[in-house]
Design brief:
By secondary structure, this protein is mostly beta strands. It has one helix at 31-34, and strands at residues 2-5, 14-17, 20-23, 27-30, 40-46, 52-54, 61-68, 88-91, 98-99. It is elongated, with a radius of gyration of 14 Å. The model has no long low-confidence stretch (mean pLDDT 91).
């Protein structure tokens, strides 16, 4: 997994186990299930009550972003398993939360 620290400060605790990532022992995502035939971008935010959520709709502040590249197929057009080394995790500081935008 490629890790990018977007800004200075404390980052949300996370754990990677296989193809799953869990943030702060609260929000868990199976990245293999999120993989598509096109690149996928996932925003992980904190809502007004301080709860983690997926997406900017209910989320007010970024804590992380996940970028999954498009699925890879072999010569026989069989979809290959997600290579976690190609997934990018961008971490935002939770000390001074950055307001999310619905882009």
């Amino acid at each position: 997994m490629i890790i990018i620290n977007k800004n200075e400060g404390t980052k949300i605790p996370y754990e990677v186990s296989g193809k799953r990532i869990t943030f702060d022992d609260d929000l868990s995502l199976n990245l293999a299930k999120q993989e598509k035939d096109w690149p996928v971008h996932i925003d992980v935010c904190v809502d007004g009550d301080g709860n983690l959520c997926n997406g900017t709709g209910a989320g007010l502040y970024y804590v992380a972003q996940i970028d999954i590249p498009a699925a890879v197929y072999n010569d026989e057009q069989v979809r290959q398993p997600l290579d976690m080394d190609t997934v990018t995790l961008t971490l935002w500081s939770i000390d001074e939360l950055t307001e999310s935008t619905d882009e």
